[in-house]
Design a protein that fits this description.
Layout lengths: L1 H15 L4 H20 L3 H14 L3 H15 L3 H9 L7 H16 L3 H14 L8 H17 L3 H12 L6 H21 L3 H18 L5 H16 L3 H10 L1 H18 L9 H21 L6 H9 L2 E2 L2 E2 L4 H11 L6 H19 L9 H20 L3 H14 L4 H16 L6 H17 L5 H17 L3 H14 L6 H14 L3 H14 L6 H14 L3 H16 L7 H23 L3 H26 L9 H20 L8 H18 L6 H14 L3 H14 L4 H4 L1 H11 L3 H10 L11 H13 L3 H14 L3 H17 L3 H14 L6 H17 L4 H20 L4 H24 L3 H21 L8 H17 L3 H15 L5 H16 L1
Antiparallel strand pairs: 1-2
């Protein structure tokens, strides 16, 4: 992996050398500004003007700016979409257009579609043999990058032709020319080495030597490279002695270059120059060539072993060998040039040769390089990169880190260096996002490679450091991604469990239950021995309770209880957990009873309530049994004891089926409520308990006992709401106990006879609201009318008018509701209910418009609805609430479409349908699919939009919407329907 990174990085680094720093800085600023205008401010016209201004300063900038417009689509592999954009350009031969084609070629290459990529490059160079002024910098970058791409694709001969074409470019900068000459010469030598035709091989070596000779014109870093290439050519010609002599002939200039590098390091106080010394490079590469030639002979059947020794150990001079073999050269590089980038590999190759001589010839060479020397060299190699990093010289550190990590991928220094490489990449800005991509790749490598073994702790700490580094630079998504990588790989790291807990709690605080649940579940799965294990189980249960997934809550609590049972001194936690199980069981039972009216659900819910009563009773007994000497929070224990007693009574009272057991459960509930009042006489809940006991006596037709309870209530708690409002409270109590029919009858008593002379306006308003909630709309309407007729206070009249409108809408009397709401808004414009009133007005107006036959009047009603939605949205601050309104706007458009259809106005219906699609699409585009809080609104928008797109015959758009939906909501219960829609769209597309 690191070698692939190095290849790409070298090509990028070389081209960076000929760039204009001032121009580069200017372009980076302007590109960021253009992105902001296009993406953030939605001002493409103004962005276009900025692009024109930039082109006036740098005429060749137009190509780069055109590419900028396509990068987002290309990174997603949307080639067909990009192709349409490029083909829409007026001038297909314009430099900007070709820049776009080459950007597409690069994306093809990144996606492994090499043939398409190289085809575009070849067409470009055929069209432009030389760069035009508008294409100059872009052309040179492309011309250098293309052979690099061909080399990575192992198309060496094509790469050589590309290098030759590049050398023919007239405006190629000098430093780039020398790089290309060296690359082309090395590639030619490599191809010649594999060539079997003698004549062709000789011609290729002649071409390579010409290029190498050109490198000798200046005594710079490329001078040594030229010497090495010429020496290699001699070795390939079978003249290793001449190769050795050649290097010795040029040793003077090579040493002069070396000495100047040493002096420059000393005078300027910099490091890293000597490592590039051509002396070390020449010796090392000569040694490599000699070693490789020796291995070729050794591996050839019947090969002359004396020649092998000559290559490796030096030619014989009388009884001794000359110090001109690969072995001695490697030792010289290691000992004399320990700072060079070849020192470490020289040491490794010295050991290879010793092992080969031992195995092949039975000779033991005296080791010249010890393990301690290798360790020192390795540390020096890492030290240079780390010093550059410490000095904030990040760009210079990157290639050195990559080189040394390729040599020493699995050492203690490697862990730290991988981390510092990532940080260097993040601190080094680039325009194409390559450094960010590379940083993510290296981070993943660090985590996956070192998550086990002796370096795991150090590696885990570095990954955590990188996560915070991403965060400090404003990359919140990368920070999260890095933490996810940490949690997935470092399951034994001591900080992992606590970090998971912290992330889960923060997600809860932000309202993201789904994400929080993921963290807590990961903690309980991977860190069962952690100190945070129990807390995570408790949090899982709390989240499931909020989501009303009571079965999951109980399951989590039962695991939590088992954990507490083996915990030393659990304190009140064990009783608290059991109380929560009882509470969840009760909530589960009530949800069945209230949400499903069939007999089976009523029975099942009632059985759960009976079980909850037993569980609450057990909690009370457990708390009573705690010895007095045990250290617990006594006040907290008493609160739980009190709640357990009250909840037990409430559970018994709410049992509704089968009818045969009610004569037993209701008296038991009465006893439980009265026992609660006796045991906890100072509790604030005693009046409510007495009210419920009296209510149950009333239901059981035991009037005298009921009156005794109500008398006691008035005597002992005269200031309580229950005592002052016995009938309303009795009705509310009946409703709470699930005795809906009895409750409605009691509420109706308040609206007949004396009415407001017996009860306050507020009590009647409360009763009407309760009836509205119970969906007894006609009776609720009577109550609201009663209040409106009698009340004088604005605080009472406003909610009464509002409630009346709600009842009218529920009764589908939409016009009356609209008029009521318009009057309410006019009269109570400053009421806290006015925003809700506008939302109701929008609903009423659009529903009324759905049945309005007059076109003009219908349009007015729907416009009134849209205006009301806009008003309400301006007062919403939560994104979730805004999206809810956006959904309602789209649904109002659907109502208008249905009305147009019903009256045979197909053109108008199509227009309304299009508006609805736009409303839903805007919501979809603006909502992050990873945001669990907004997921319900996003899913609903998809489900409303897709069938409209199908009706609108936008089959490709519908198919795309289906695929996007399934990518995010593939496990939803609605997914099968969406797959059906997708099949329908694909069938239509294929017609």
């Amino acid at each position: 992996m690191m070698m692939a990174i190095a290849v790409t990085l070298v090509s990028c680094t070389v081209m960076a050398q000929h760039s204009d720093p001032e121009k580069e800085a200017f372009m980076q600023r302007e590109q960021a500004y253009i992105r902001m205008l296009q993406d953030d401010l939605r001002m493409p016209d103004f962005a276009a003007k900025v692009i024109e201004d930039v082109k006036k300063v740098y005429p060749d900038a137009g190509a780069a700016l055109k590419v900028l417009e396509l990068q987002g689509l290309l990174s997603q592999g949307k080639f067909d979409e990009v192709k349409k954009i490029i083909l829409s350009q007026r001038n297909q031969d314009a430099p900007e257009t070709w820049a776009m084609w080459l950007a597409m070629a690069d994306a093809y290459y990144a996606f492994g579609r090499n043939d398409e990529s190289f085809g575009l490059y070849n067409s470009f160079f055929k069209k432009f043999p030389q760069p035009t002024p508008e294409l100059e910098s872009f052309y040179i970058d492309a011309a250098y990058k293309y052979p690099q791409m061909l080399l990575q694709a192992r198309l060496d001969k094509m790469a050589l032709e590309a290098y030759k074409r590049l050398l023919g470019v007239k405006k190629l900068p000098g430093e780039v020319i020398r790089q290309v000459q060296a690359d082309a010469a090395e590639l030619t030598v490599r191809l010649a080495e594999a060539e079997t035709n003698k004549k062709t091989k000789e011609e290729m070596l002649k071409d390579a030597e010409k290029l190498a000779d050109q490198l000798l014109w200046d005594q710079d870093m490329w001078f040594g490279k030229g010497i090495v290439i010429k020496a290699h050519i001699q070795v390939l010609k079978g003249n290793a002695a001449r190769a050795q002599t050649l290097i010795e002939e040029y040793m003077g200039p090579l040493k002069a270059i070396h000495d100047s590098l040493v002096a420059q390091e000393r005078e300027d106080g910099v490091r890293g120059l000597v490592k590039m010394s051509p002396m070390a490079q020449c010796r090392f590469l000569l040694a490599v060539m000699l070693q490789e030639e020796a291995m070729k002979v050794a591996n050839t059947p019947g090969g002359d072993m004396e020649i092998v020794k000559n290559y490796l150990l030096g030619q014989r001079d009388g009884g001794n060998r000359k110090p001109n073999g690969a072995y001695q050269h490697f030792i010289n590089v290691f000992v004399k040039f320990p700072d060079s980038q070849w020192a470490m590999e020289a040491g490794e190759r010295e050991q290879e040769i010793r092992a080969f001589i031992r195995e092949k010839f039975g000779q033991e060479l005296r080791p010249m390089i010890t393990a301690e020397m290798m360790d020192r060299i390795r540390q020096k190699q890492f030290e240079e990169a780390q010093l550059l990093f410490a000095g904030n010289n990040f760009e210079a550190a990157i290639p050195i880190f990559i080189d040394v990590l390729n040599r020493f991928p699995e050492t203690t220094e490697a862990v730290r260096s991988l981390s510092e490489l990532v940080q260097s990449l993040l601190e080094t800005k680039d325009s194409d996002g390559y450094n960010m991509l590379l940083s993510e790749t290296v981070t993943g490598h660090l985590a996956e490679r070192f998550c086990l073994g002796s370096y795991a702790m150090q590696a885990g700490n570095e990954v955590l450091r990188l996560a915070e580094k991403y965060g400090s630079l404003g990359y919140g998504d990368k920070r999260q991604q890095t933490y996810d990588t940490f949690f997935a790989n470092f399951t034994t790291h001591p900080e992992a469990a606590q970090r998971l807990m912290n992330f889960g709690v923060k997600a809860l605080e932000s309202g993201d239950d789904a994400t929080a649940l993921g963290y807590f579940e990961r903690l309980t799965t991977s860190y069962t021995n952690s100190a945070w294990y129990g807390d995570a189980l408790s949090q899982i249960a709390a989240v499931e309770n909020r989501r009303q997934n009571y079965t999951n809550e109980i399951e989590a609590l039962n695991v939590y209880i088992k954990h507490l049972q083996v915990t030393k001194k659990p304190g009140l936690a064990l009783s608290t957990a059991r109380f929560r199980v009882a509470q969840a069981t009760r909530q589960q039972g009530l949800s069945l009873i209230r949400e499903q009216e069939d007999e089976e659900a009523q029975r099942a819910g009632s059985m759960l309530l009976l079980r909850a009563a037993v569980l609450f009773d057990n909690v009370g007994k457990e708390l009573d049994a705690i010895p007095s000497g045990v250290a617990i929070d006594t006040k907290q224990a008493n609160l739980f004891r009190e709640q357990a007693s009250l909840q037990k009574a409430a559970s018994l009272a709410q049992v509704v089926a089968p009818a045969a057991i009610l004569p037993r459960t209701r008296p038991q509930a009465i006893t439980a409520f009265l026992s609660f009042a006796e045991e906890f006489p100072k509790s604030e809940h005693v009046p409510a308990a007495l009210m419920k006991a009296g209510t149950l006596y009333t239901v059981l037709k035991e009037t005298e006992k009921a009156q005794d309870i109500f008398t006691r209530l008035r005597r002992e708690f005269p200031e309580s709401e229950e005592a002052r409002s016995s009938v309303p409270m009795l009705a509310a109590s009946l409703m709470e106990l699930g005795l809906r029919g009895d409750a409605i009858a009691k509420y109706k008593e308040m609206f007949v006879g004396g009415g407001t002379t017996i009860y306050t306006d507020y009590q009647i308003l409360t009763a009407a609201r309760a009836l509205l909630e119970a969906r007894e709309y006609d009776v609720a309407l009577q109550g609201f009318d009663k209040v409106i007729a009698a009340a004088n206070e604005v605080s009472i009249l406003g909610p009464a008018h509002f409630g009346r409108a709600q009842a009218l809408i529920s009764m589908k009397r939409h016009k009356e509701a609209r008029l009521e709401l318009e009057a309410f808004i006019k009269e109570h414009g400053k009421s806290s209910l006015v925003v809700d009133a506008y939302l109701l007005l929008a609903d009423a107006a659009s529903a009324e418009g759905e049945s309005e036959r007059d076109n003009k009047q219908r349009d007015q009603l729907f416009n009134k609805a849209i205006d009301a939605f806009k008003f309400a949205r301006n007062y919403r601050t939560e994104i979730k609430d805004m999206l809810d309104i956006d959904l309602q706007v789209g649904q109002a458009m659907i109502r208008q479409m249905n009305a147009d259809k019903a009256f045979g106005l197909e053109d108008l219906a199509a227009n309304s349908r299009g508006k609805a699609i736009i409303a839903f699409k805007q919501l979809i585009f603006a909502t992050d699919p990873r945001n669990a809080v907004l997921a319900p609104q996003l899913e609903k928008a998809f489900l409303l939009s897709i069938p409209l797109e199908l009706d609108h015959k936008q089959f490709e758009a519908a198919a795309e919407s289906c695929e996007e939906y399934l990518e995010t909501f593939g496990s939803s219960r609605n997914a099968p329907q969406v797959r059906t829609w997708l099949n329908q769209a694909q069938i239509e597309i294929g017609k």
